[in-house]
Amino acid sequence: MTLTRTHNKKRNSALLYNFLIMTISRSLVEGNQRQSQRALRVLKKHYKPTSELFREFRLVNSLIETTVSSNIVANSIIQEAKRAVRMLDETALDRQKSLLIRDINHVISDPDFYDQHINEYRIIATIQTLVNDWRSANPDLKRMALYEEQLVNWLTTERPAESDVIMESPGTNRLLMKIMMKKLNEKYSNVLNDDQKALIRAYAFSTANDETLSIQMKLNELRDSLVSAIDTYASATEVSTTLNEKLLSTKRQLVNESLDKIDDELVTRFMLYTKLKSELEESGDDDV
């Protein structure tokens, strides 16, 4: 799939969305709360449901996410997509993309922002190029025919189903969940333990759906399990006075954690707590 120079990743609405989600999730895992919050603010500011930017993103994303059973249905979807593209306000869309790029450059200010790896980069770039051609007065007809054929192949190719927890989030929120979890698993699968992955999943779900119940339940669950792990370790293992004091101090701090305000800082602390839990359990197994 050869991409021409006409594709500009800095003006690709779906790529920019992906880059923002990846920045949020990576910064969260690395404990960079400030950068995570900056990227989240930029995302919420520019991808509002009423904006032309969001409308184009939603259209591109629907083509990325949709799978159909036949070429006839795929071609019908492409025709509907063409009509939807031509209804967008191109002037407003272009201005909104420029404002988004300005905020990315000045607020996030990450030299590697536009170079983050995305597995679906080529199909996203192909669809954006098609979208540009569909609304152009003088499209590249040869390229458009080639890319539409590639899009038909994409639409008729089966892809792995999303997990149940991701499917609980409707529409765009489901995409946010999917991208966050996919990128976290790709980059940190060998670093995060199961509890940390579950915590990130619950936090991503909570952020995407603007609700706190799921993350509060997960934090309570992790708190109870770590308190139990500390008690079990202290009673079953001969520990020094210094270590015992540190464990008791951690237990007190954990018990006193308020879950009223869920933010990156709190989740990051619990990421460290879960790491301690894992280390205590591994140490306990070694002593058996």
Describe the structure.
The protein has 288 residues and is an all-alpha fold. It has two domains: 9-159, no CATH class; 166-287. Helix content is 73%, strand content 0%. The protein contains 13 helices and no strands. It has helices at 13-29, 33-46, 52-65, 71-86, 90-108, 121-134, 141-155, 164-167, 171-188, 194-209, 213-236, 241-255, 264-287. Helix 1 packs antiparallel against helix 2 (33-46) and helix 9 packs antiparallel against helix 10 (194-209). The protein is elongated, with a radius of gyration of 23 Å. The N and C termini lie far apart (56 Å). The model is unreliable at 1-5 and 162-172 (pLDDT under 50).
Instruction: Give a short account of the largest sheet.
Output: none
Number of helices: 13
Query: How many domains would you count in the coordinates?
Result: 2
> Could you say which overall geometry the principal axes of the C-alpha atoms support?
elongated
Structural Rg: 23 Å
Report the portion of residues in β strands.
Answer: under 5%
Fraction of helical residues: over 70%
Secondary structure category: mainly alpha
Low-confidence stretches: 1-5, 162-172
Q: How many beta strands in the DSSP annotation?
A: 0
Distance between the ends:
56 Å
How would you state the average pLDDT, rounded?
81
SSE order: HHHHHHHHHHHHH
